[in-house]
Design goal:
AttH-like fold
């Protein structure tokens, strides 16, 4: 079946663009943005994704003010319209590839609306390819992801408050990924039920903005600390990327829980130069608001077009327990660069994304569930 995209010279197979290069149901193609300001105490996240082999497109937006999460989510049947990146009131426009994009949540009865333009501050960084096998040998993750530091401008409404998003004060980062990873309704486990010890996922991802540079760090580990993915770079708009030769994390948790309470991350740039960053949390975003599992999971068919709004309060203990397994925390970041021409102390702001599911020896988690519920 042909679509408007087939008029562009972008084909990667002998088939129309609407037919992707794999029949894996979990193929996806996704945008993600966040924009934030520590001084205002506001955080916004937005995501839109296409699932060609599931026949749908969905989008999510969440504005966080204090502990309150104001959510808009929408899903529609794809009808081969991959070029129409709009789901109900949520849409994205690529004005100039890898440079300028626009995200919109139209005014409605829900407690969130915005019209924002992302301008690239740095080149897009292609992270090392994500490739992960399950215990039976199947690739359950096989995808490419880019991350890009930018500046947002425009207008944002969270509940009854209106904000002018000034690119001089607000910071933004986006990622863009496509390939295969688990989406939608769970698949039958088959013989995987014999491998309960592999119910684990350890993930950190952290872009940080400073005045003249930025850092990007990500690590994924098995329970014993062995890494299956890692990357660290120092980014300057006029000097490209400096890749770390090593990286270490020291994550702090609220006592008796898996809740993020701060971290120290060290990027080793080689030749005696290190970037040591300490994170002070300010505002926590519960990422399941963007459809990471839960009652409205990414890639679940809801109908030809369905739009809903919701309000969560992260200060509610039950909400924090149910949805707090994957978080992005807005932080002030104090950084010391040791060695090299950039030696000195710097202040920045950024996010620390974290999921610790299952056992992890380094931090004392011994099974799938300890630390989810705070001690009495």
């Amino acid at each position: 079946m042909l679509s408007a995209y087939d008029d562009y010279p972008i084909h990667q197979s002998p088939y129309p663009i609407g037919r992707v290069g794999t029949s894996d149901r979990n193929f996806y193609d996704r945008y993600y943005f966040n924009v934030h300001d520590v001084e205002c105490g506001v955080f916004l996240a937005f995501g839109l994704a296409v699932y060609p082999n599931l026949g749908l497109m969905d989008a999510f937006a969440c504005g966080v003010r204090g502990s309150k999460h104001y959510i808009v989510r929408a899903s529609r049947k794809l009808d081969n319209d991959r070029h129409l990146t709009r789901v109900g009131p949520l849409s994205i426009e690529v004005i100039e590839g890898l440079s300028k994009l626009r995200i919109i949540c139209e005014e409605s009865e829900y407690d969130l609306a915005f019209d924002l333009t992302f301008d690239a501050w740095s080149a897009a960084y292609e992270e090392p390819h994500f490739l992960f096998r399950n215990p039976l040998g199947r690739y359950t993750m096989d995808y490419t992801r880019l991350t890009q530091i930018g500046r947002m401008s425009g207008h944002l409404r969270v509940a009854a408050e209106e904000f002018t998003v000034d690119p001089g004060a607000w910071r933004s980062v986006r990622d863009r990924s496509w390939g295969v990873r688990p989406v939608g309704d769970p698949e039958p486990e088959g013989a995987l039920v014999e491998h309960p010890e592999r119910i684990d996922f350890f993930w950190n991802w952290s872009p940080v903005h400073y005045r003249d540079f930025a850092t990007l760090y990500t690590v994924s580990e098995y329970p014993d600390g062995q890494r299956w993915h890692q990357s660290g770079v120092l980014i300057k708009p006029d000097a490209g990327f400096r890749h770390a030769v090593g990286m270490e994390h020291d994550i702090r948790f609220e006592p008796g829980t898996r809740r993020f309470a701060g971290a120290t991350v060290t990027l080793d740039l080689g030749q005696g130069e290190k970037v040591v960053s300490d994170y002070e949390p300010h505002l926590k975003f519960l990422m399941p608001a963007l459809g990471y599992r839960g009652p409205w999971a990414q890639g679940q068919y809801k109908g030809r077009l369905v739009v809903e709004g919701d309000v969560w309060d992260a200060a509610d203990e039950e909400t924090a327990i149910i949805h707090g397994w994957l978080t992005e925390t807005l932080c002030d970041v104090k950084t010391l660069i040791v060695g090299g021409p950039d030696s000195g102390e710097y202040s920045g702001q950024g996010i620390f994304e974290l999921a610790v599911i299952g056992p992890h020896q380094r931090y004392g988690f011994t099974d799938a569930f300890d630390g989810w519920v705070p001690p009495a």
